[in-house]
Design a protein that fits this description.
The structure is a single chain. The chain is of the alpha+beta class. It has 2 domains: 85 residues, Phosphorylase Kinase, domain 1; 136 residues, ATP-grasp fold, B domain (D-amino Acid Aminotransferase, Chain A, domain 1, 2-Layer Sandwich). The strands form 3 sheets. Strands 8, 9, 10, 11, 12 and 13 form a 6-stranded antiparallel sheet that branches. The longest helix is centred in the middle third of the chain and has 24 residues. It is globular, with a radius of gyration of 17 Å. The structure holds uridine-5'-diphosphate. Uridine-5'-diphosphate (UDP) binds next to β8, α2, β11 and β13. Uridine-5'-diphosphate binds next to β8, α2, β11 and β13.
Length: 245
């Protein structure tokens, strides 16, 4: 068995809308590739944004290391290349876990709440990961009935989502940024719940704390322009090391 340092990339295992997963020469590890592809509205709007894969790869590594340091187990192992990271091989749970600090996006549409309204305490929602059915909102009871996760796993996913929020809210706030909301995905490894997937501006909302300028994928969704520049600005302010261009 090769050591984690000597891993090589093998066959493509899965292609998502913005990332691809490859087998590696070690069965316990995969290679996660962050592509420049950007999509919204269940993949209806699509574009390639040059360098986004590289920025998201570094951004994700930075955030996952902060979360690990705070005691949260994550899938991330190490950077592998400019656009790729070595990750642990998890059995993914097909559920999205969303935490919100400020009303935006779907919540406003669904409840008629004004965008920007502070949510105190922060809210939590589960969605089913299913593009065909537009990622419908689900609850603990549905997760149990359809056996997507156990009661204990549901409790852990929710608790860890709020814990991630506490760690990241402070990190972002120190950079004069508001962490509006974010989506997490979890998986199983040796009977334990582990934070999987990614954390990047593709899957969260970040606003400038003073001007409320959007610095996340809403710039792409709403055709606001300057998508990469916003991702780079957030990275710079948080201290994510990006190669100087
Ligand atoms: N989100 C995501 N993938 C999804 C759905 C949502 O990463 O398939 C993120 C989204 O970027 C936002 C948060 O989860 O940061 C809450 O999204 P919301 O439910 O408001 O849906 P949206 O309006 O983004 O479709």
């Amino acid at each position: 068995m090769p050591s984690i340092e000597d891993l090589e990339k093998k066959a493509l295992r899965y292609t998502g809308k913005a990332k691809s997963l490859y087998d590696s020469t070690h069965p316990d590890y995969l290679i996660m590739e962050f592509r420049d592809d950007t999509s919204a509205f269940d993949g209806i709007k699509k574009e390639k944004i040059a360098h986004k894969g590289m920025v998201n790869n570094r951004f994700n590594a930075f955030i996952m290391e902060k979360l690990e340091a705070a005691g949260i187990k994550t899938q991330f192992v190490r950077l592998f290349s400019e656009t790729e990271s070595v990750v642990k091989h998890l059995e993914m749970i097909p559920v999205e876990s969303v935490v919100r600090n400020i009303a935006a996006g779907h919540l406003c549409k669904r409840l008629g709440v004004e965008e920007g309204r502070p949510l105190d305490p922060p809210t939590h929602e589960f969605f089913l990961k299913n593009d065909e059915y537009h990622d419908p909102m689900i609850n603990d009871s549905l997760i149990r009935t359809f056996n997507w996760a156990t009661d204990a796993e549901i409790i852990t996913m929710k608790a860890q989502s709020f814990q991630v929020n506490e760690v990241l809210k402070d990190l972002f706030s120190a950079a004069e940024l508001l962490l509006v909301d974010f989506k997490l995905e979890f998986g199983r490894l040796n009977g334990e719940i582990v934070l999987g997937d990614e954390f990047s501006p593709d899957g969260c909302r970040i606003w400038d704390a003073k001007t409320l300028r959007k610095l996340d994928k809403d710039r792409f969704r709403k055709d606001l322009g300057g998508v990469l520049e916003a991702y780079e600005e957030v990275s710079f302010r948080l201290g994510v090391p990006l190669p100087s261009s």
